[in-house]
Structure formats: C-alpha cells, structure tokens
Amino acid sequence: MSLRHAVLGLLAIKPSTGYELTQRFDLSLSHAWQASHSQVYPALAKLETDGLVEVLSEGARRSRTWGITPAGRNELRDWLVESEVDRGQRNESGVRWFLFQLLDPADRREVIEREIEYTERTAAMLGSLAGRTDDPNPLEPSIDLGQRINAVMLEWLHDQLDGLPGDDER
Amino acid sequence: MSLRHAVLGLLAIKPSTGYELTQRFDLSLSHAWQASHSQVYPALAKLETDGLVEVLSEGARRSRTWGITPAGRNELRDWLVESEVDRGQRNESGVRWFLFQLLDPADRREVIEREIEYTERTAAMLGSLAGRTDDPNPLEPSIDLGQRINAVMLEWLHDQLDGLPGDDER
DNA sequence: GCCATCATGTAAAAGGTTACATGATTTT
DNA sequence: AAAATCATGTAACCTTTTACATGATGGC
Predict the structure, then answer these.
(1) Residue A63: per-residue pLDDT
(2) A1 at the B interface (CB within 8 A)?
(3) Which residues pair with A55 in a beta bridge?
(4) Comparing C-alpha atoms, which of A22, A70, A72, A24 is closest to residue A47?
C-alpha cells in the first residue's frame, strides 16, 4: 500500500487540507497515482493515529490543515530508500501494445494515430511545465524524464506507422 | 476492468488452460498486468457465460483448454480500437521519482544506483528476448519500445548521478 | 436568498490479493 | 510410496471506485 506514502510525500512537500490533497493528487500525481477524497480522509485519520501526520491549524468551513510529523518523515524516507520497489505495476497501455499485433493494419493505424495525438499533447503540456525559468523547479528532473520518454514514444509510434503495409499500394 | 480483455487477448494469441493462462500472465505480461489463478478461473467462467470464450477440449487432470469465440474477438477488437485508454494508471515508480527530490544527496545516490542496476538487468533481459533471430517475433515492436524506454531511463539515471553534489569535495 | 464551491465524511459495490482446500498425474 | 507439479476452485480480507450525504462560506 503506498497511498499512505503518497499522502506523506505530498504533505512533506507542503501542508494541506484533505480537500487540497485530493486536488494535488489530481494535478501533480494523476499520471502516477490517483486518490479521491473518499480515500484521502480515512487515510489521514489512520496516519494520525499512527502519529505520522498532525493537524497544524483549523480554518474556515471546518477545514483542517495537515502536516507531516518527524516520525512521518522517517517513515517516508524509509519507504523511498529502504523498501523494495513494486515492479508488478498494472499498466493498461502495456497490455494494449502487447496485443496490438492482433489487429489488422487499418485498426493499427487508427490506434497509432490516436496515440500520436495524445503523445503530442503530453509533450506540449510537459514543455509548458518545464519552460518556467522563473522558479528553480524541484520537479525538473521528473519532468525531464517524462519529456525524454515521451520523445522516444513518439519516435517509436512513427516507426510503427512507417512499418504498416502502405495504403498507396494496390 | 481489463482483466477480461487481457484474458481474451492471451486466448486470441493461443488457446490455453486456466493454469497455462496464469503462467502466461506471469511470463509475458507480468510487466503490464498480473492475474493469479484465483482471478483467472472466475474470469473464464464469466467470459463463458458471456459467450466470449469456449472450451475447446478437455485433457488430463480435469484440465480444460479454452479458446476465444468470434464474439470474443469482436469484444477484444472493440476494446483495443474503440475504447478510451485508461491513462490514470497507477505507477509506484512514478510516485517515487516525484518524491525523490525530498531525499538528501546520499539517499538519492543510493536510490539511483539501485535503479541503474535494475535497469541494466532489464536491458539484458530485453536484449536476449530481441536477439532471437530464428523466429519472426510478433512481439518485436513492444520489445523494441521497451528497449528504447530502458535506454533513456539509463541515460537519465546517469545524468541524475552526475548532478549530485560530488563526494570528492571537502 | 440562491448558487457555486469548499470541505468532510460514510456506505455500497467492485476489483484484487492471500490463504485455504482438494484432487490428479508424473517423477523420483 | 512419497514428493513435486499440474490443475481447479472458494473464502476472507484488503483496496479502490462510485454513490450517497451533509454542512459552511462567499459571491451574485
């Protein structure tokens, strides 16, 4: 279970209310982890009983701002450094590309073109994230990685398109 | 739910018993999808009532070999071509790299080195898969993609290592 | 005063993992 | 004959998603 670690991590970056955490899962972690508020609130309650997070302040509308405790930082650090990475992560795109070969050329073309569009949109999004020279962005490394992977993905997709039986033949 | 589609896909490649399917999930799809036998058997039963798979033959030890029906092929094709890709795939490594910045340089070095080892092992494994020139491998494209992504990953990891505060300073 | 949004929670249903259970065949 | 492996299934538990439910505040 790494929902708790994702929550700890987000709180280590910045204290937040449960509501804000839900938004941050959507904005900055949606490509890697999702959690809706119905998971976040119980998770915070559990982390509190474990002494890993604490309420820093209470605000309007019954809101509570949570922060990570020193014990929470230890737990997070141990997870990141000492624990085994779970490599058996489910990946729907992986399944799709694995089964891709079963499609006839016309369908393959359609799938590839759809994916090229998506990849180009992602590239643009990553580009705008990286382009902010004003602040020294601590996320720069993972954005950079995303851009590099996106680039090879695009290349590969075009190679796959080129490899299709040409529609100029008769 | 794409467990059903993964099962349909594997059966579209080759008819199998439930037991063999479990093994094939482990061998060829473990990087993208896992399913244990306790998931596979009920899934086959469900797919049968839906008319998407059928028993082709019964063998020793009460074993039954399943195949995909024409309706099953339609369902699989529709999923691959017509349905939206679920992009919100959970990715523990993604979370880890996102939170990576929170670690101090010594810990970062440890994590990167561990990851370089893993990536090199993966590269070797992919290389041996791709090196089989004897059969025209229909999985070649996804192996190729895996190799390319692995290569940028390795580059990025070395760049991250180089970017760490040097331990030659005093 | 009404609506949108902020804010927090619980409950039901679906999906997935681990453990339990059993029997048949092959290998040693 | 015992052990390993093939082969299938169910049950309990945990996690995740979707739906239900409610109240507070700020802007119009």
Answers:
(1) 97
(2) no
(3) A66
(4) A72
